[in-house]
Amino acid sequence: MDEGKYSRLTTSVVDLPFNRHLGLLVCRDGSGLVELPAGPQYLNHIGTVHAGALLALAEAASGEFLLNLPGLRSDLFPVVRRLESKFRKPASGRVVARASVGEDEIARLDSTLASKGRSLVSIGIELHDESGTHVMSATVDWYLQKIDPPACVIRLATEADIPAIEELIPVSVHHLQAAHYTAAQREAALGPVFGVDRTLIGDGTYFVAEEEGRLAGCGGWSRRRAVFGGDLDRKEDDDVLDPGTEPARIRAFFVHPDFARRGLGSRILRASEEAIQAEGFRRIVMVATLAGEPLYARHGYKVEERFEITLENGLSLPALRMGKSLTD
Q1: For residue 191, is it left (φ>0), alpha (ψ between -120 and 50) or beta?
Q2: What are the tens digits of pLDDT across the range 251-293?
Q3: pLDDT tens per residue, range 101-155
Q4: pLDDT tens for residues 54-101?
């Protein structure tokens, strides 16, 4: 198994692109682990919640339970081996998933992992709709295997990462952009061009790369109109885009010079593209720096325009508009 192809989940299963597409949410009222909100998009031909939506909720809840299991080792890679279900009654409205596992199952899991480095664990799931009706029971078997941790782990950024991102950006800009821009250009661009966009973090579309707790890089994508810059001085509209008619944005890639040329940019870009495709976008655009052009060109992005970004003190920053179709 090449773990470098995967992003280890460290927050919640609802952050996975497919679960975000479904609209699954973490329960905040204590009624369960994960919920499927009420909505007409989840209904079947008889007006009740579709079986496929219930199965997806059950699988997600088992993963959320596993992720929050006390003492679960961080060097384990889990995948679903089997899911068995029994549909009890039709479901209506919001559906909540609860999970459980026996103490003997946990003991067996710990013992087998310690002796063999791999194990199976069965997690029981019960689904109830908004009326309290018990609508489905399921058992989800997860296979866990010990792996060598990757050099860097890619995960979604949180607000707690903002101070580290703010420290990383000027270090990255002044070292990795120095061959293309003057010191005056780089300094003037910090903030208006190179800055933290908290909207991306709030939207769950921004990633960070970590190695043993150290921030190695960051970058992501956006479903909003802005194409570059931090959020503090933004004056233009930053409305949500229409995936059917407008392109998603690649945004704000920065790598610490100590971790340059180790493939972090490519890994974050792949994670971003997977999330973009999951939301139904057909095209991607970006404003790239001169230093970033080779990376994006290797991944199929074409230069659409070369232009200058106006900065303070009469300065400007050469940049490129690049794009890529997801339907070709």
Answers
A1: left
A2: 999 999 888 877 889 999 999 999 999 999 999 999 999 999 9
A3: 988 888 888 888 888 888 899 999 999 999 999 999 999 999 998 776 556 899 9
A4: 999 999 999 989 887 766 655 677 899 999 999 999 999 999 999 999
What is the set of domains in the chain, with CATH numbers?
A: 3-146 (3.10.129.10), 153-325 (3.40.630.30)
Q: What's the token pair of residue 191? A: 């903030």
Give the position of tokens 């080792």: 73
